[in-house]
Design a protein that fits this description.
The complex is a heterodimer.
Chain A: H1 14-37, H2 44-69, H3 77-91, H4 96-119, H5 125-144, E1 149-150, H6 154-161, E2 163-164, E3 167-168, H7 169-187, H8 189-199, H9 201-206, H10 211-237, E4 239-240, H11 249-259, H12 271-290, H13 295-317
Antiparallel strand pairs in A: 1-4, 2-3
Helix pairs in contact in A: 1-12, 2-7, 2-10, 2-11, 2-12, 3-4, 3-5, 3-10, 4-5, 4-10, 6-10, 7-8, 8-10, 11-12, 11-13, 12-13
Chain B: H1 4-7, E1 13-22, E2 25-35, E3 40-44, H2 51-58, E4 66-71, E5 74-76, H3 81-87, E6 89-92, H4 104-108, H5 123-136, H6 152-165, E7 170-174, H7 182-197, E8 201-205, H8 209-215, E9 218-223, E10 226-232, H9 238-246, E11 274-281, E12 285-292, E13 297-301, H10 308-316, E14 323-328, E15 335-338, H11 344-349, E16 352-355, H12 359-363, H13 370-375, E17 383-384, E18 387-388, H14 390-403, H15 420-432, E19 438-442, H16 450-465, E20 469-473, H17 477-483, E21 486-491, E22 494-500, H18 506-514, H19 518-522
The chains are: A mainly alpha, B alpha/beta.
């Protein structure tokens, strides 16, 4: 009943703002820690490496953020990466760009299946995409005959390892993807629809929004981005490795989204926060590796962070 | 009205001069209130008057800044509603807060399930006890069914029964009838009688004035956080209460009725703009046909479960039908559609609009701003080169905020922070900005304060006068009587009568609803 005073963008209070800023504070703290205690951290080579390594997760996480904004989830992203990776060597004979196009189309196709199952068959997103998590990896292995294939294509190599104006190509792709997603969410009717569906699907339907079409589009976009990440990983390693590419990346992507301040309950999204979430995860892993701690420690720290992030959001949604 | 017997005993609960501020804004200012055993005490006031805050102070959700609550003569400060309930103060909230997937019995005994010797829940005993409890309050349902499958009204009755089956000495009811049908209200009134005979004190918060006179012995009117009147119900009347709630002089309140509809009926002629024929969806609807002309308000009357909401949703394409057709002569000028392939998006394209009954579940998108909620359905028209135009959105929102007098601190405020009445106006604005030919309104004034209610009723009138066709669903008969030009009465999913013009009165509607169906009459019902 009592109407609170609110700011322009509808953020209700300082506590919520602090929660939203949490990921930035954590990144700042980690950077300071590394600058002080990690040798060779503040070198161009190292910082560049960190940014290149985070690219696939960041790209996948942007797609994931949109899916989560519809109150959904996409577990099939890692398998979609594998399918894209497996297709590259099969079509590289026609040239790098046709192979990339085929891989991207395959990603969209996986997304269409996911979206169709969710929107038209009415399946729960976690189940629908779990199916493709399992089946997709299997399909990729069949396509690749279960083998790692080395690739020596110059275009692909450039995509993975060259730079424009000193900035790695993969970083530019991340920025481009995030910019497109951010503008779409903020400035287009499509973005409003996504948030409306995630906020209250029944109401969105009664307001005459094309709910099913929007859902399918979002999953297809997530599939497209997952395929892009698969292509990028393949290009960087100069090898197609469908057994391992994108393995468990769905968890990193979900973590990045949630840590970045997008609630799992849908209806809200933070694209920049998602990028920062991915960066935070990368910094944690790098810090632990550079201090010669085992990889398993990094995973436990990541797990602790996702639990903490979800806990904080729980408080947020109860307000 | 037996007030004398209560006057002799000490109050069960006394609130003395409590004040409460939230972020500088005064919510309550020196409010005092006595609840006597065996007495039902009405608490009335517009939204924002402080009723909810007062309840929260009593049940320990908030602490008063000044003043004190006494329970049984002792000063108390409960740690929260649970603590208050343990002490014997039960609260029944406006929104049913039970578990939809659990059975009726499971909800009734939630947290205190009867157990067998092994410490496991004894479903047999629980179900039997549940049946006994509900029977006492005249509710007959299969107690094993999930609560969510039952109508809102029944759910509310279960919530009441649950609160009462704990040993309560004070019962606070926060708008208990807002989702009840007249028949269920009768039952609730009987239950409150029962409570009074058991010397329980009842605090009855309501928007509905007739219930004050029907149920309560004392009444307290709150306005802007202060008590403006407190006394015996017998010493006041409806008109005075309305005047006090609104802070107006009696002469300002219209004598002729409780709604803000004008007396005149709208001229409706020619071809109907909406013609729905033979809508059938077994077992909920059978061959329902509805016509609405331009400038006409057509009411749908009937009890809960009679098919009113189902009719509205079938017309709007929100629920599937087995057969039937919907024709709309809106923008497209002569579009006919088979109802089977109808959808809300298609309905809106052809000039229909709907404001659903359940505001929170199907209407507002709470996390989005007021602006985003208003422009939601009109988005395609507000883009320039694919991008949303801030200027166009703001202009549209501005127009409707002013026209519907939506009270907000900023269009970027989240819609869930608005009061019920203002949320309802946001939903109206969402549909009106599409310039529909026909607007379907399902309980447009349910659960909103007196002021907003009057404004919305006046708006419906005004829109109809401008040529909008309105299909109005309401369980408040006076709203249909004073607002509608024609009333269709539904029973068991079929139209059982049509009333026009001067023939529309509460008596006739109730008679039509109550008239025994031929087969039931034959079986001696």
């Amino acid at each position: 009943m009592t109407v609170q005073a609110v700011g322009r963008r509808g953020r209700t209070n300082p506590r919520e703002q602090l929660q939203a800023a949490g990921v930035y504070l954590a990144i700042a703290a980690l950077l300071l820690f590394n600058l002080a205690f990690t040798p060779h951290f503040a070198t161009v080579t190292n910082l560049r490496l960190q940014l290149i390594q985070v690219a696939p997760v960041a790209i996948v996480a942007v797609g994931m953020a949109l899916v989560i904004a519809t109150e959904g989830i996409d577990l099939s992203v890692g398998s979609t990466m594998a399918i894209a990776a497996a297709l590259i060597p099969l079509y590289i004979g026609y040239g790098a760009w046709p192979a990339i196009a085929v891989a991207l189309l395959a990603g969209v196709a996986v997304g269409l299946v996911n979206g169709g199952l969710v929107a038209f068959a009415g399946m729960q997103p976690i189940i629908a995409t779990l199916g493709l998590l399992v089946a997709g990896r299997g399909l990729a292995l069949v396509l690749a005959d279960g083998r790692l294939v080395e690739l020596f294509d110059p275009t692909l190599g450039a995509l993975g390892n060259s730079a424009v104006l000193g900035l790695p190509v993969s970083l530019l792709i991340v920025v481009g993807v995030a910019a497109v997603a951010g503008i779409a969410m903020r400035r287009t009717a499509f973005g409003r629809r996504v948030l409306a569906i995630g906020g209250n699907r029944a109401a969105a339907n009664l307001a005459g929004l094309p709910v099913k079409r929007t859902l399918v589009t979002v999953y297809a976009f997530s599939g497209l981005l997952a395929a892009s990440a698969g292509i990028l990983s393949t290009a960087r390693q100069s090898a197609s490795d469908p057994s391992f590419v994108g393995l468990l990346i769905e968890l990193s992507a979900i973590t990045a989204v949630v840590v970045g301040g997008t609630p799992l309950s849908g209806g809200r999204v933070r694209i920049l926060g998602t990028l920062m979430g991915a960066l935070l995860m990368q910094l944690i892993t790098a810090t632990i590796i550079q201090h010669n701690l085992p990889d398993s420690t990094a995973r436990m720290v990541q797990a602790a962070i996702i639990v903490a992030a979800v806990y904080i959001q729980r408080g947020r949604s109860r307000m | 009205m037996r007030t004398s017997e209560a006057g002799t005993t000490a109050p069960a609960l006394r609130v003395r001069a409590v004040s409460k501020r939230f972020a500088g804004a005064r919510a309550l200012d020196g409010v005092s209130l006595d609840l006597n055993p065996g007495e039902a005490h009405a608490l009335v006031g517009e939204n924002g008057a402080g009723k909810s805050t007062l309840i929260k102070l009593i049940t320990g959700v908030h602490r008063p800044d000044e003043g004190q609550v006494y329970y049984d003569g002792e000063p108390v400060q409960f740690a929260g509603p649970r603590d208050a309930q343990a002490a014997g103060i039960s609260t029944i909230y406006q929104e049913v807060s039970l578990v939809p997937l659990r059975s009726v019995a499971g909800n009734l005994f939630l947290g205190r399930e009867p157990t067998n010797r092994l410490g496991l829940v004894s479903f047999r005993r629980m179900n039997r006890q549940a049946r006994d409890v509900l029977q006492r309050y005249g509710i007959t349902v299969d107690v094993r069914r999930p609560l969510g499958e039952l109508g809102l009204g029944v759910q509310q009755m279960i919530a009441v029964a649950r609160a009462l089956s704990t040993d309560a000495r004070v019962v606070i009811m926060d708008e208990p009838t807002s989702s009840l049908e007249p028949r269920e209200v009768d039952r609730l009134v009987a239950v409150i009688e029962l409570l009074r005979r058991q010397q329980i004190a009842v605090l009855y918060v309501t928007h509905k004035l007739d219930e004050v006179f029907r149920v309560c012995q004392r009444v307290t009117v709150l306005r802007d956080g202060q008590v403006v009147h407190s006394g015996s119900v017998a010493d006041t009347n409806r008109l005075r209460l309305v005047a006090m709630m609104l802070g107006r002089a009696v002469a300002d309140v219209r004598e002729h009725g409780a709604t803000s509809f004008s007396e005149e009926h709208h001229a409706a002629s020619g071809e109907p703009v909406l013609r729905a024929e033979g809508l059938t969806r077994r077992p909920l609807l059978s061959r329902v046909s509805v016509d609405v002309h331009a400038g006409e308000v057509v009411g749908l009357a009937g009890l809960l479960g009679s098919g009113r909401t189902e009719t509205a949703k079938a017309v709007f394409g929100a629920e599937p039908v087995d057969s039937g057709s919907v024709h709309v002569r809106g923008h497209a000028g002569g579009a006919a559609k088979r109802a089977r392939r109808w959808s809300p998006a298609a309905a809106i394209r052809h000039g229909l609009g709907m404001v659903p009954e359940d505001r929170a579940a199907e209407g507002v998108i709470g996390e989005l701003s007021v602006r985003d909620n208003i422009v939601l359905a009109a988005l395609p028209r507000l883009t320039r080169a694919g991008f949303l135009s801030d200027r166009r959105q703001d202009r549209l929102v501005d127009t409707f905020v002013k026209r519907l007098q939506i009270k907000l601190s900023s269009p970027h405020q989240k819609v869930r922070e608005l009061s019920g009445g203002n949320q309802q106006k946001v939903l109206l604005a969402r549909m009106l900005c599409l310039h529909p030919a026909v607007l379907i309104l399902d309980e447009p004034t349910r659960g909103i304060d007196v002021g907003a209610k009057a404004e919305i009723q006046a708006l419906i009138d005004e829109l109809a006068a401008q040529g909008l066709g309105v299909l109005l669903i309401s369980s408040e008969l006076e709203e249909l009587v004073e607002g509608a030009d024609r009333v269709l009465v539904l029973r068991d999913g079929a139209v059982v009568g049509t009333l026009r013009g001067a023939d529309i009165d509460e008596d006739r509607i109730m008679h039509t609803i109550a008239a025994a169906p031929p087969d039931a009459a034959a079986s001696g019902e």
